[in-house]
Amino acid sequence: MKKFNSVIAGLVFASLMVFLMVEGAEAFCVYNKTDTVIHVDQMGGRERTHGFSSKIKQGEKACCNWQNSDCNKEGKKDSIVRVNVYYFGSFRNKDICYNFPIKAGGWLTVEGSNTNYKCVAHDPTGPTPMPVPKPK
Question: Where are the alpha helices (DSSP H) in 25-74?
Answer without folding.
Answer: none
